[in-house]
């Protein structure tokens, strides 16, 4: 899934948490937590830059460097980080912040599960993909063969949206925009 979908899903997760939990939050704090949720929803994918640095190119090459093999794409990391913040906080804001860190990051990992993440790491490094047959191979081929930087990323984005996950992503973005406005 591409960044807009992850941002929207993280935002919606924070919205659900702030509206369904009985913590005392001001309207400003609810807005801050929604923004934090949106950022956290996307945050795990910053590890792409680590993968880019490793292959020394702004390209996706899962054979050489798969960013989903990094701890930043493991459920346990975000669960522990979120719970540490939750239990270390004495304020309502801090507690909800911990839950947003945990669950907005998990919204990212759930959406990434279409193509698989290491749900049971560190017990196993196995990926658990639903399927990757949603992806249109012809677009994948186009971006893999493309030498031009802009053409490459154009096909990556088009490939992302011309699939069932792309449709799901658009639905999440529309839902987030409805909630936002
Ligand atoms: Zn990701």
Automatic annotation (TrEMBL):
Lineage top rank: taxon: Bacteria
InterPro entries per UniProt: YdjM-like
Presence of the UniProt keyword Transmembrane in the record: yes
Keywords tagged on the record: Membrane, Transmembrane, Transmembrane helix
Residues annotated as transmembrane: 33-55, 76-103, 152-180
UniProt protein name: Membrane-bound metal-dependent hydrolase
């Amino acid at each position: 899934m591409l960044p807009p979908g992850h941002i929207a899903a993280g935002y919606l997760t924070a919205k659900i948490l702030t509206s369904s939990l009985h913590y005392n939050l001001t309207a400003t704090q609810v807005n801050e937590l929604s923004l934090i949720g949106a950022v956290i929803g996307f945050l795990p994918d910053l590890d792409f830059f680590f993968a880019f640095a490793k292959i020394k190119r702004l390209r996706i090459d899962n054979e050489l460097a798969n960013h989903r093999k990094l701890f930043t794409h493991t459920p346990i990391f975000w669960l522990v980080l979120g719970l540490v913040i939750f239990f270390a906080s004495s304020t309502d804001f801090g507690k909800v912040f911990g839950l947003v860190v945990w669950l907005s990051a998990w919204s990212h990992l759930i959406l990434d599960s279409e193509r698989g993440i290491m749900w049971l790491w560190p017990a196993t490094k196995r990926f658990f993909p639903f399927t990757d047959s949603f992806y249109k191979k012809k677009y994948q081929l186009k971006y893999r063969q493309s030498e031009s930087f802009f053409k490459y990323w154009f096909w990556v984005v088009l490939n992302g949206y011309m699939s069932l996950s792309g449709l799901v992503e658009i639905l999440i973005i529309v839902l987030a925009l409805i909630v936002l406005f």
